[in-house]
Amino acid sequence: MKRLGGSVRWLVVLAVTFGIVAPSEARPRPRTRAAAVRPPATRAKVAPKPRPTVAPRTSIAGVARPGRDLPGRRTSEATSPAERTADAIDAILRGPLRFGTTGLYVVDAASGAELFAVHADDPLNPASNVKLVSTATALAAVGPDFRYTTSVLGVLPDSAGAIAGGVYLHGSFDPTLAVGHLDALAGDLAARGVTEIQGDVVIGGQPTRDGIYRARVRVEVVAGAPGTAPTVTVGPDTAFVEVVNTATTSKRAKVRRGGVTIGSQMVTVDGQPRLRITVAGAIGKGRTVARLVTTKERNWFTAHLFRAALGRAGIAVGGVRTDALEDFVAASGVRLPVPLATHRSAPLAELIAQINKRSINWLSDRVLTTTVALSRGELPSMTDGVDAMYAWLDTRAAVAKDGAVLDTGSGLSYRTELSPRQLVRIVRAAAGYDAGAPDDAAATAFRRSLAVAGVDGTLRGRFRSPLRGRVEAKTGTLTGVIALSGLLHGGDGRTLAFALVSNGHPPRRKLAVRAAHEQILAELDRYLGAVAPAPAVDAVAPTSELDRATDGLADDLEPASGE
Asked: Which region holds residue 516: left if phi is over 0, alpha if psi is between -120 and 50, else beta?
């Protein structure tokens, strides 16, 4: 019985099991969804902006076009050159330019009539396209023929070639003043018969008016024999610079720890500033190390350079000191100092060509601040320079101050904001098209300052296409920023003013974005070719009695113009 009871229990278990499970197996199984497998945690990445659900379409002549048909639906066929061009631009925007935001604005340069636009009023960072504003502001402040001057002032030399008292080096904030120019000034004095200056080289106390703006020296350290001190040379070598060398030469070519260090500090010697260069550590055997060391004591640096130049020209001179020009003149007594030699910079037109073609950041900032300061009789400052840029935008390009953000003359900033429409207004105003005066001297200088596609400047290596030589523009590049604004000259003589600004693309796509900008300009060029007026053809009239009566008289007429 005990054994039977065990069997009964098993039967009961089986019955209960089949009674419960079998009916449920007979019913359809509910669908179950597998649990989502989470990917392993990774470091967050900054992704490009997602593509919009409906890609923006290029407007034509200020008229927005309806959104593009969804995939799978039929799109109406473009019928006009403008529509075909807009569709081609849209394809580029959806393709290579699909990341981030690209703004485009295109007008007829002469009339200002709007042709194509997309994101034309978006505030975007144009990078170095800001130089279009700063160079136009400088031209408006002092004119294209303006030159910075640096003069040597003093009394006329006597018959023996001696100048009583000192000479004053008086500048005008010239950002291009260089050592070679000081040598030329000294040479001019020697050519006048000057052999001695019975005083000092005097310079103003303001660091930048009379001095070389990029005041720097090159320090070169050359290894000696192992265990000995390396050789240190400084150029240009003047009394303004002193060298303290505690470095040694290692037995090995590579130094495991430290290495040679080059430091600098300003010190005072005999009441005057000096630039002390310190060389320490160890330099590898057979190695050479070079560094550029800058100083903000530009006036003192320049005065010492000029004193050295005078010595090379065979002119004896005293020391170096600073003084106000008024005090120097008063100390000259009845003999007022006169310009004994003068250096003139290149014209402003040439300087802004260097700025815009080569996109030189420091020079654009300096030309802006100095030309504005000279026009106002003030000291240079970026605040005044930016204020002058805003004033030029308001009065010349119809761009209100509250509609733009500027903080430099170079565009080397991530705060800058200008829209493509504003950039085109800037180009047209600076190039003289808005006033109908493209041949004006300042307008011509501005236009010639732009890089020429495939020819020079930052566009020299680009536009290896039929557009070579027909695009004049300013480039702009920052991380995530590519811009190009300027003029496109058509084969029929018509000119377009355009602005292309892309923001927010991955940095690795920089070259692809530039290539896409060139594709858009190629489409605009095709548009110009498509809308160019056809050559005039004389209509063939039906033969009439009058035609037959005058047949043959055409041989006696002069040929039409151009034949």
From this structure: alpha
Token pair for 560: 């039409």
Under DSSP, is residue 160 helix (H, G, I), strand (E, B) or coil? coil
pLDDT of amino acid 412: 98
Backbone angles phi, psi at 550, to 5 degrees: -100, 5
State the residue for tokens 């903080």: 407
Cα separations in angstroms, 406 against 349, 402, 474: 23, 10, 17
pLDDT in tens, 207-219: 999 999 999 999 9
How far is the first Cα of the chain from the last one, in angstroms, to the nearest whole number? 132
- pLDDT, position 331: 86
Q: Which of 138, 152, 210 is nearest to 185 (CA)?
A: 152
User: In a 10 Å sphere around its CB, with 0-12 CB exposed, 13-18 middle and 19+ buried, how is residue 550 labelled?
Assistant: exposed
**Chain position carrying tokens 């009058």:** 546
Q: What is the pLDDT of residues 376-395, one digit of tens each?
A: 999 999 999 999 999 999 99
Helix axes 382-396, 361-376, angle to 10 degrees: 80
CB 445 within 8 A of CB 349: yes
Rounded to an integer, what distance in angstroms lies between the CA atom of residue 501 and that of residue 411?
A: 13
How many residues belong to the chain? 563
pLDDT of residue 67: 65
Distance, in Å, from the CA atom of 495 to the CA atom of 177, rounded to the nearest integer, reads 38
The full 3-state SS of 92-147, as one line of letters, equals: HHHCCCCCCEEEEEEEECCCCCEEEEECCCCCECCHHHHHHHHHHHHHHHHCCCCC
Distance, CA of 517 to CA of 500 (rounded, Å): 7
Helices 131-142, 348-358: inter-axial angle, 10-degree rounding: 180
Predicted TM-score of the model (pTM) = 0.82
Place of tokens 């001696």: 162
Q: Which of 462, 398, 420 is nearest to 58 (CA)?
A: 420
Helix crossing, 420-430 with 131-142: angle to 10°? 30
- The answer to whether the Cα torsion of 486, 489, 493, 496 is positive or negative is negative
Q: CA-based Rg of the chain, rounded to a whole angstrom?
A: 37
Angle between helices 348-358 and 441-449 (to 10 degrees): 30
The list of the chain residues with pLDDT below 50 reads 1-53, 70-75, 537-563
Burial of 230 (0-12, 13-18, 19+ CB in 10 A): buried
Residue labelled with tokens 């040597």: 152
CB atoms within 10 A of CB 60: 17
Distance CA 561, CA 540 (A): 19
Task: List 291's β-bridge partners, or say none.
Answer: 219
Phi/psi at 56 (nearest 5 deg)? -65, 145
* Six-digit token string for 200: 């000092």
Residue type, 43: R
